[in-house]
């Protein structure tokens, strides 16, 4: 069955790889990227539609949602794949720590703004998380901007944990309305990840051993495709966190994933931060 798929972070890495794989099946692809040139190169080669947005601006996210709503009355899949491990602590013009905004608040807002189109379609929301949610997170819902103790690794780990909590919050609030969210760790993928960051992890991605230690973008794209094309409740279970394409074991999961009170508190704080843009859409 062909689907209308919004895929963010589609200009490079596993997003571009997944887009190439999905295009072979004949899905309608609405590809989102930050770089106009790179996004156009991927989209034009596949005959896909392209959209540009910089997640460091929530105004751009709201504009993106307007453009997507204008392009599609129904959306079967929203793949929130954009994100990254960034550098020194920066506060956006919207007042949020940059890593938290790019990796969590921007996709949170985009998802909220596209809920009617998702409900008209298959209602699938796929959040690309990371093993960093377990290995790097030091999550404090009262310090979402990591003002007290910042490192690029901690900020990224916290944001990737937020991706998992977001999926759980979506299911709790909109599952009865047909929204089917899932979060997954695609594996450690051999891409340009962390290149512009101050994290020591950037060195791992540059070493010649990367080919032995990391999987290819095509393999990571296959893991993303598994959820995009799968059947919720059969191929995968909504609200569950997956390591690649299998349910994450306790050793692969941050215990905070199962804290219902944290799911609710993060949702409330996130909703408050994007409230001006949600009101503007009504």
UniProtKB/TrEMBL annotation:
Q: Which Gene3D superfamilies match?
A: NAD(P)-binding Rossmann-like Domain
Query: From which domain of life does this come?
Result: Bacteria
State the UniProt keywords alphabetically.
Oxidoreductase
Q: Example GO molecular function term?
A: oxidoreductase activity
The molecule here is called Short-chain dehydrogenase
**Organism of derivation:** Agrococcus baldri
């Amino acid at each position: 069955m062909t689907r209308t798929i919004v895929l963010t972070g589609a200009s490079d890495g596993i997003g571009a790889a997944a887009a190439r794989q999905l295009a072979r099946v004949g899905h309608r692809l609405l590809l989102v990227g930050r770089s106009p040139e790179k996004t156009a190169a991927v989209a034009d080669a596949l005959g896909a539609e392209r959209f540009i947005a910089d997640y460091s601006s929530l105004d751009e996210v709201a504009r993106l949602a307007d453009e997507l709503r204008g392009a599609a009355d129904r959306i079967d899949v929203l793949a929130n794949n954009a994100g990254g491990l960034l550098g020194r602590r920066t506060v956006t013009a919207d007042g949020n720590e940059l890593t938290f905004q790019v990796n969590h608040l921007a996709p949170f807002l985009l998802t909220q703004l596209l809920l009617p189109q998702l409900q008209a379609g298959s209602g699938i929301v796929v959040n690309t998380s990371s093993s960093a949610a377990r290995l790097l997170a030091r999550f404090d819902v009262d310090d979402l901007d990591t003002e007290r103790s910042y490192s690029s690794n901690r900020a990224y780990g916290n944001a990737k944990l937020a991706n998992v909590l977001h999926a759980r919050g979506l299911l709790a609030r909109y599952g009865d309305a047909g929204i089917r969210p899932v979060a997954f760790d695609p594996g450690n993928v051999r891409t340009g990840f962390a290149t512009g960051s101050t994290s020591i992890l950037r060195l791992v991605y540059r070493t010649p051993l990367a080919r032995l230690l990391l999987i290819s973008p095509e393999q990571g794209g296959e893991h993303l495709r598994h959820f995009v094309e799968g059947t919720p409740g059969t191929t995968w279970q909504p609200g569950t966190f997956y390591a690649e394409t299998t349910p994450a074991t306790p050793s692969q999961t941050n215990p905070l994933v199962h804290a219902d009170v944290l799911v609710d508190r993060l949702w409330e704080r996130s909703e408050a931060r994007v409230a001006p843009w949600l009101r503007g859409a009504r």
